[in-house]
Amino acid sequence: MCTKHYCHIVPPYILEALAKRGNSSCKKALNDSQRFLERRRTVLNNLMVREFEDGNGDRFIYDSQNKNEQRVALVRQEGDDPTQDETANKAYETSGFVRDYFKDTFGLDSIDGNGLDVISNIHYGQAYNNAFWDGDEMTYGDGDGEEFTNFASAIDVVAHELAHGVTQFLSNLEYQSQPGALNEHFSDVFGTIIKQKYLKQNISEADWLIGDSIVTEAFPGVALRSMKAPGTANEFDSQPDNMADYYTGMSDNQGVHINSGIPNKAFYLSCLEIGIDDCGLIWFETLKALFRTADFNDMLDTILRVAQELTIAGKVSDSSVDAITHSFAEVGLTQVMV
Ligand SMILES: [Zn+2]
């Protein structure tokens, strides 16, 4: 049992900034997101915790037919031939790739480790500028074509959102302040790893961007975020890459999409030293070992312990502990000795 999480790929401050410039679809997405969040909160208040139904990790693709509703019409399920709708086929392919990555790499049986069916809703709303995981399924808009497009086709977006599901079931990090920034961080970590695997890129070929393929030419930037250079992906990107610039404001659930830039940069630096596969295993095992209220210091303590254990077990490079220590020190995080 665990509490349900809710996360959108496009952060509220980007939608707000675009809405202020007159993009009505961004304003609509923002309003709809808030309405949806309120509705989910009501459901949560009623349920608080619920049992999730185990399945076979099968994919189900539903077409919302441009309504603001989920599970309207089932258009493709596990094993079915491709449909006429390319968005449905893409959602089927990308969600399967993410599910299989976690299974093949870490032995995780679907998103919850218990064969949860992987449900995707496509064509949600009219020109809806977002995609979200709401606790047990995925939902994708088509984008307005002005600023955003193709949410269900973007492997990093799909992986980022499904990784929120993995986090929900493995450590249940709460979605605010530092635990929330870690929650966002882990989604960017697996979003970028899975994107590199999907595109068959090595770490020097990769762009380390999140959401580059969902933004149009008109969008004022190249992506939503950059793990290599936090704060540079677009005009509104205020992600810090060091604790010296830590965001202390209240917006964005106390900066969950903002302060995630700090551990994101540490992940990027660690990958340069020990590679993405060793980092993937270390980060995955760390996620399993974390807990709901874990902050950045807990993350560092845990990841160093996990890296040491995996090194002793011969599963990762001997230099893993040093690499992670350097990388976190580079972003202003060092272990607090008590
Ligand atoms: Zn997210």
From TrEMBL:
Subcellular location: Secreted
The enzyme's E.C. designation: 3.4.24.-
Organism domain of life: Bacteria
Keywords per UniProt: Hydrolase, Metal-binding, Metalloprotease, Protease, Secreted, Zinc
Residues of the Peptidase M4 domain: 63-168
Enzyme class, broadest EC rank: hydrolase
Cofactor: Zn(2+)
GO molecular function ontology, one term from the record: metalloendopeptidase activity
GO biological process, one term: proteolysis
Pfam families from the UniProt entry: Peptidase_M4, Peptidase_M4_C
Active-site residue list: 161, 257 (proton donor)
Protein name according to UniProt: Neutral metalloproteinase
Source organism (scientific name): Pricia antarctica
